[in-house]
Structure formats: C-alpha cells, structure tokens
Design a protein that fits this description.
The termini are far apart. The protein has 13 helices and 12 strands. Mean pLDDT is 92; it is low at 5-10 and 13-25. It is elongated. The strands form 2 sheets. Strands 7-6-8-9-10-11-12 form a 7-stranded mixed β-sheet, with helices on both faces. It has a 5-stranded parallel β-sheet with strand order 2-1-3-4-5, sandwiched between helices. Helix content is 46%, strand content 18%. With 326 residues, the chain is α/β, with parallel strands linked by helices. Helix 6 links the parallel strand 6 and strand 7 (193-198). It has 2 domains: 3-143 and 266-288, Response regulator (Rossmann fold, 3-Layer(aba) Sandwich); 144-263 and 298-325, Rossmann fold.
C-alpha cells in the first residue's frame, strides 16, 4: 500500500465517527406529550404513527419520538412540556386533553405544536381560528364538550323513566366545566336533574360508584376525560357490577363491554396529528394548517351488555346505531 493510500485510509477512519455523529444529530425528534398512559394509549399512538408513516417518517428509522406521560396527573403537564423544550425537539405533539396543549403553548412560542384535544380550541383561546390558527400551533379537535349534550339525550332515550342522571367528571380536567355547562343546559331542556360525581384517581372512581349505588338516578354519563379513558376497563366493570346503564365517549369503552358510546373516532384525530406532524417535519408551518374538525360521529351499542343489564334497547336507537356489538 503506497503512502497516499495509507493517508486516505487514516483520514477516512478519523472522519467516519464525526460523520456518524452528524447523521445522528440530524435525525429529527418528535416530543410526544400525553395526558394518558402508555398501555391505554396504544390504539392512538398506533394511529399517530400510521399518519406519520404516510408522510414518510418511521419511528426509529428517520425520526425519533420522545414520550412524556402524565398518566392522568394533568398538573405534571407544564414540567413535562418544559423537558421537551429543553430537549430541543423539532415538534411537540400535545395529546390526551387540553392540559397538554396549553402546557406546550405556554412552554414555547417557536417549536411547532400539533394538538389532539376535545376542547373547542377557539373558545378556549388555544388558536385564533379554525382556518387560521396563528402562531406555532394547530391540530385536531373531537369536541368532547359539545357532544356531551347529545350523549345525555341518548341516555335519556334509553332510560326515559329516570328523572335524575349521574355524571362522572374529573375535576382536574380543564374540560370538565365546559362539559358540565353543556350538560346542565341539555338537562334543563329534557327536564332532568343531574347528580355530579367527581373522581381523579382509581380509588375515587370506586367511591363514586359506591355513591351511585345509593342514588335515585341509576343511569350514568361518563364525561370525556383522558384519565377515564385510561381506566375504561375499571369503569365498565363497575357499571356491570352495580348494574348501571351508562354511556361513554369513545367506542373503545363499548368494545371493552360498555353499554353505549357516541363520539367521533378518536383514532382518526391521532391519525390526522401524525399527518400534520409529517408535514411540519418537511417545512410546513402550523399557522398554515387549519385545525381539523370531525365530520362523522358514531353511535355504538353493545347488545350483550344490554342483555346482562336486563335492558331493551329502543328500536330507534338501534336504527341509528353505526355499529351493534352482539
């Protein structure tokens, strides 16, 4: 081997580690901030990755994702958002309720943010408008608050003799009060009284059902909440144990054995978040991406659960159901 070849070989050996480090640094990083927990969020993170993949990005391939989980403790959102900002991620995906979105927005005015939230982003001040969100934030909403009234109507139709209906809310969720406002207005129209039960821990959920067992209104509406979603098996099992007809937000509850659910498909919102994140990674600005709103809503009824509860589902509800689980 001549002297020139030796020098070239040595030069390549010296520069290869630097080139490898440069490639590693060049990989873009997504910060994923969620109000939920890893296990209960699998259907939604899967949908997010599918949308991301359609934009040409594969986790662990050409993009990295750093996860921060609040596990229903929404007060942790600001600190976890600050961690992602300090990490200098390329984009923050704020999911699992409005606490994540507001924490991310408060933490940075420069890093792009894509949210998935049930709150009305305009009324809550998250964005300037649906078509022109402004600033560094956009995303998808599934309107948890406004659909709460429709769920109350469906539950009243299912149990028309119930003059009082219990509502389970998480007081630590910023979206709890907007949902209660909608529900109280709807209850007034339907001439119903509401009994509000509060829970923000597993033990408090158990205690709420124990109180419900003593209440005159033996029907339950579970308000939209990421923590409740992460405890959907517990909620469904308690409703079965106490023989309480209940309506929930997402189809995942009904698939787990819940009686009835009405909402848009939550996985669709996460898929959209993945698509938007992919577009931002190639240079799109959040201010130019309109907030996505759901266009379809689905009513899912579990006939097996209805039979176990001794309830006959009214024909009109069955006729309107998008899916009946038998």
């Amino acid at each position: 081997m001549n002297r020139r070849a030796v020098l070239l070989l040595l030069s390549g050996a010296m520069t290869a580690p630097r080139a490898l480090r440069a490639q590693q640094k060049a990989m873009q990083v997504i910060g994923y901030l969620s109000g939920g927990s890893p296990d209960s969020s699998v259907p939604f993170t899967t949908a997010f990755r599918q949308g991301l993949g359609e934009g040409g990005y594969i986790e662990g391939g050409n993009v990295a994702i750093e996860y921060r989980w609040q596990e229903g403790r929404y007060d942790r959102a600001p600190a976890l958002a600050a961690e992602l900002v300090d990490r200098r991620v390329t984009v923050i995906v704020a999911s699992g309720g409005p606490a994540s979105a507001f924490a991310a927005k408060a933490a940075t005015a420069t890093i792009p943010i894509v949210f998935v939230s049930g709150t009305d982003p305009v009324k809550s001040g998250l964005v300037a408008s649906f078509n022109r969100p402004g600033g560094n934030i956009t995303g998808a909403t599934f309107f948890a608050a406004t659909l709460a009234a429709k769920r109350l109507e469906l539950l009243h139709e299912l149990v028309p003799d119930a003059n009082e209906i219990s509502v389970l809310v998480n007081p630590s969720n910023p979206n709890a009060e907007p949902q209660l406002i909608e529900l109280r207005a709807a209850a007034g129209t339907l001439r119903l009284s509401l009994a509000v039960l509060e829970a923000s821990t597993e033990d408090e959920i158990d205690a709420a059902f124990a109180r419900l067992a003593q209440a005159s209104g033996r029907a339950l509406l579970v308000a939209g909440d990421t923590f409740f979603n992460s405890r959907r098996n517990q909620l469904v099992e308690l409703a079965a144990r106490f023989a309480v007809p209940a309506i929930y937000e997402f189809r995942e509850y009904t698939e787990a054995g819940g009686l009835m659910s009405y909402a848009s498909r939550l996985a669709d919102s996460y898929h959209q978040a993945g698509l938007y994140t992919g577009r931002i990674l190639v240079g799109a600005k959040p201010a130019d991406l309109p907030v996505v709103q759901p266009t379809t809503f689905e009513l899912v009824v579990n006939l097996k659960t209805a039979k176990a509860l001794g309830i006959t589902i009214p024909p009109l509800i069955l006729a309107r159901a998008d899916e009946v689980i038998e």
